[in-house]
Amino acid sequence: MLHRNQKFPEIVRRTPPKTPADSRVRDFNEIYADFAASNGATQSSRCAQCGVPFCQSGCPLENAIPDWLKLAAEGRLEEAWRASEATSALPEICGRICPQDRLCEGACTLERAGWETVTIGSVERWLGDMAFKEGWIEPIRPVRERDASIGIVGSGPAGLAAADRLRGLGYAVTIYERQDRAGGLLMYGIPGFKLEKPVVQRRIDRLIESGVSFELGVEIGRDLSFEALRSRHQAVLLAAGVYAARRLAVPGCGTNGVVPALAYLTASNRKGLGDAVPEFESGALDARGRTVVVIGGGDTAMDCVRTAVRQGAASVTCLYRRDRDNMPGSAREVANAEEEGVVFDWLASPKAVHDAEGRVTAVRAIRTALSDPGPDGRRSIREMADSAYDCSADMVIEALGFEAEDLKAQFKTPDLAVRDDGTVWSAGATRATTLEGVFVAGDISRGASLVVWAVREGQDAAAEIHAWLGARQQVAA
């Protein structure tokens, strides 16, 4: 008889129910449901409980995945949640938006052995949602209050994760956010069909109930100088993210109708939150009835194409210079987009934007081919001779990635070391910058990356700030 925690030979992998494509494209609701309790426990029982859990090493947070799968399979659901929460400040969010196929589930021993991976992300989400529903998640009440405060610049995943851990250690925490809502990328960048905004807001509300302060609409360097910020706090964490969009650099790229991805997604999310969005109302950032071409192959591009479908675009095409197997976006998101009617034009690189009377009419593209993998495993691109063609469009969305803003200039901090790409330098494997008492985490440190990496670095930064403040106090004593 099989052990209750190693039932993969007899139980088939099942994901939670997914709304059919013809229904889900009518709104921005999340497309996946949570597991029913019995199904969640059953799917958890498929874990092989490996002696060397590759799923754990495949997770940037090094979550103790086999442990909470075992507990969930045994019906010890609150204990499973506690084990999940121990290593992640935002588990139910990561369970929704992590590309598990490239991380924990992709590393699963069962997947490699041909048995199909455990539904790790779905179980993580299910446990997190249950924890809120059952009241297991309460405001943070530190064992002791410490006589020090930390200022955090940015309220995205790195900032929220750091605030959670620092408040748990008893520090006073203030988060400075230049937008009118907290959440950063989670609130304004990721569409609701992947991450509904109440899921983000309940995490923010918990931090507020725990005593974390949020100063919204405050841009450091404009509304408050960086020098003044440092004088307010014993330590500062830079978790500002990267928001400078990479733009097309081809003839016609400035044509009316060519828009950056983040502006497009932010407008859509704000509209969903009930805000007045003039650029959406004018049609500039609304895809309804439009022939849309999205350029790029990452998760942001997938967010854009699926948003355009829901806005009622006449057609949506994703133009990407590599093939399906070599795109950076999640395979799951590509599959979802295809189900929703998105056309993928693989091995195609933009060369120009055509217009008529100042309005985009088409993207001139050229076919590409991939080389053999180089030493880093990446395949370079070469253009195919005499292969140019036009792809009709009256709206082009640039989803080419993001770069760091010039924080040195914005903060007036010439001694803050940054890399050539503008990301903030930190010493070795630490989160410490070249300014004493100033630390860094998330995309502003590593470049545009995954939410789970931002959570990891936010938590690491919190631990490092705690150690640094403790060392200072010992020296002062």
TrEMBL record:
Pfam families reported in the protein's UniProt record: Fer4_20 (PF14691), Pyr_redox_2 (PF07992)
Chain spans, region Disordered: 1-21
Stored InterPro entries: DPD_II (IPR028261), FAD/NAD-bd_sf (IPR036188), FAD/NAD-binding_dom (IPR023753), GltD-like (IPR006006), Helical_ferredxn (IPR009051)
Domain Dihydroprymidine dehydrogenase span(s) in chain numbering: 24-135
Keywords carried by this UniProt record: 4Fe-4S, Iron, Iron-sulfur, Metal-binding, Oxidoreductase
Origin species: Brevundimonas halotolerans
Protein name listed in UniProt: Glutamate synthase (NADPH/NADH) small chain
All copies of domain FAD/NAD(P)-binding, residue ranges: 150-458
Matches recorded under SUPFAM superfamilies: alpha-helical ferredoxin (SSF46548), Nucleotide-binding domain (SSF51971)
GO molecular function (one): 4 iron, 4 sulfur cluster binding
Top class in the EC scheme: oxidoreductase
EC number: 1.4.1.13, 1.4.1.14
